[in-house]
């Protein structure tokens, strides 16, 4: 009797957690999940709650950017000039505008960075004076 209750509870907790018991074969027909992991078969991937990206083993280069050497400068929101849009996007930066960044863009970025550091520690001078008194 207790074993039936325990099994029922385990099943209920598993289903409530979104991970129902999955019974999959040990058949090896690899699939690549949208999470970039290779699963031994579609069933095991589905049991993990992942959708299929494509059949076969995940390519280790899926997470890498391959960009051309084409020179088409783009200014990023970080004030840096990138050789092309692909290189900019691979860096995880947004496009500010097409073309090379100007010295003004870099100076503006540095000013914002300096302002942020001053804002985060407005009493820096007072802190230094106080620490010298101790």
Model description:
The structure is a single chain. With 134 residues, this protein is of the alpha+beta class. It has five helices and six strands; from the N terminus they run αββαβββαβαα. The chain has helices at 2-16, 42-47, 85-90, 103-120, 124-133; strands spanning 31-33, 38-39, 52-55, 74-76, 81-82, 95-98. Strands 2-1-3 form a three-stranded antiparallel β-sheet. Strands 5-4-6 form a three-stranded antiparallel β-sheet. The longest helix has 18 residues, at 103-120. The protein is elongated. The N and C termini lie far apart (72 Å). Residues 1-18 form the signal peptide. InterPro entries: Kazal_dom, Kazal_dom_sf, Serpin. Keywords: Signal. Pfam families: Kazal_1 (PF00050). Residues 112-134 are annotated as: Disordered.
Output the helix-strand order.
HEEHEEEHEHH
Q: What is the subunit organization of this protein?
A: single chain
Q: Determine the structural class based on helices, strands and strand pairing.
A: alpha+beta
Write out the strand line-up for the largest beta sheet, numbering strands in chain order.
2-1-3
What global shape is seen? Answer: elongated
Unreliable residue stretches: 13-18, 117-134
- The overall strand count is 6
Supply Rg: 27 Å
Instruction: Look at the structure and give the mean pLDDT.
Output: 75
Give the helix level as a range of percent.
40-55%
**Count the helices. How many?**
5
Taking the alpha carbons of the first and last residues, their distance comes to 72 Å
Strand content: 5-15%
Largest beta-sheet details: 3 strands, antiparallel
Signal peptide: 1-18
Region (Disordered): 112-134
Pfam families: Kazal_1
Protein name: Kazal-like domain-containing protein
